[in-house]
Amino acid sequence: MPSHSEVLSLVAGEPVASIRPPAPDQVGLATLLHFEGELRRRTSVNELLYHFANETRQIVGYDQMFILRQSRIGEGFHVVVASSIAVVDRNAPLIQAIEAIISAAGAGTELDHAQDFAATDRSTDPAIAEYPFTAWRWQPLVDRQGIVFAGLLFARQEPMREGEGVRTERIAETLSHAWCALTGGKPVRKIGVLGRFGRRSIAIALIGIALFPVRLTAL
Q: Structure pTM?
């Protein structure tokens, strides 16, 4: 089985924090409230997500966490943050495999509820076969209209227990609220794709610009 450092190299970048042992089954109310307070004190989305991905181990145990967000263009989900990784390389085989699995699930209605599954049951990608943490839990993040705009992917060696699932739902609600608050209620700002008429209009405009006479001067 690969070491933690080898696992991190599968994703991208250099590890910025050592992997801490999973949190115990019982988490005190004071710990949970303190964690939620820390989330609400983050001043940017990047800071919020990075803090969440690396500090949630004090609430629930996991070997690695990935935070995915709906694509700004078209459909699908993209990994925006991974625990213990400074910068996510979206060209890394593992990242691409994760995005493919989640995006495929998003084509149906599988992402609108929390679920546990084995990664190897969803993909035959070699990157998934080599990844040691194949017990995954998907926890959706919903906006104020109840629409799934992102999600948490917990990767572990063993599936989550019932008590841990309750905690993931609680902290996911807190993260969703903080994320929406920092973005004015629009956590994903979609970029429209031009239709046939729009592309034709741009083409005509470019042709018109190309035909516009321009005087040339020489020294």
A: 0.77
